[in-house]
Task: structure prediction
Amino acid sequence: MKFYGILSKEYYDAFKSSEFYDIEILVGKKPDIKKFKLHSLILKIRSPFFRSELSNNKKLKYENNIIKYEKPNISVKVFDILVRYIYGGNIDVYKNDVKTNISLLVAADELRLYCLNGVIIPHLFKDQELLRQNFVLIQHVITKHTQFPRLTQFYKTTIKQDPSIIFKTGDFVTIEKDVLLNLVKNNTSFKQIDVWGKLIEWAIAQSRELSSDTTKWTKDNITTFGNLIQPFIPHIKFEEISPKDFSQKIKPFKSIFDIDFYVQILEYYSSNEESHSKFGINLMKIDSRIINSDHALLIGNFIKIAAQYGRDVTFDFELLVRGSRDGFDLQNFHDNCNEKGPTITIVSVKNTDEILGGYNPLNFGSTREYYVCEDSFLFSLLR
Result:
């Protein structure tokens, strides 16, 4: 007669009661840690890993004749499942989600419970859509562990079919920074404005202080966001982003950009013929002795980005006052410019090619009152 079932039950009862235990294993990382009171003989019989670890008495730590051992790299949940398998010989992968089963696969391999590989892998591949939704986890596992050829082949085949899949996977925000940086550098299939959106999503997941609603971000929040994504900015192809998307989705975070880099982006929109049509700027003869129509186009583009105007908005430039003709006194300026709507003031720096100026979207007045405005700006151009 065979009594394997009775033997397994008695082992399992010993696990539940902790009676006669001779080893305490501290599992997990704070705050999720647990101390398991187990039996070193059973561990050594069932797991070649523990047989090796617990056979070297010189390495072991004892306290009151109890072995003290730590396993921080395996979660409490996963270790509990594996210990119950070691003692009772049963495991039910159907009860677990994908993340748990993949963690089980890795932990079982480390403990050299190789027979579980043949149970977990076939179960995982019953629903490949779930694997795709956890594609970042798959990438992480096959990068650090080469002993799962079926998972590795699945990763390679899927990424070849859809190079942008990691951006769309359900666990995207868990991606490691270096992996994401390499992905952004080599991205050719995912729209650049969508890459920007995913960077915002990733940054929010990395910081407890960032709300999912970016419109509620404070200046400090925007600074935190900028610090998180600063390494990615040089690798975003801003020239592939429409002016409208840039204005609506990137301009609110302009403070995180290096000023010279930000100006380069604006200059690109102004010099690129396709962007000209997108901005809807009318090329015209400018009545000015300081700027020409190209300068006017550039300034008009700056205004569109600052004010978030649509692409179909056009500008007409009307000369209000010329210092060399009308005089430079303050009263003359206000007589000609007050209550005329948005204005651009331009001066030429003597004996240089530099042009300085500023855009005021509000009416000038003589009331000596001050107003707060986010759309105004200063600029410097060269002839």
In short: Residues 176-280 form one domain. Strands lie at 23-29, 32-38, 61-63, 66-71, 343-348, 354-360, 377-382. The longest helix spans residues 192-206. The chain has four domains: 1-90, 92-170, 176-280, 292-382.
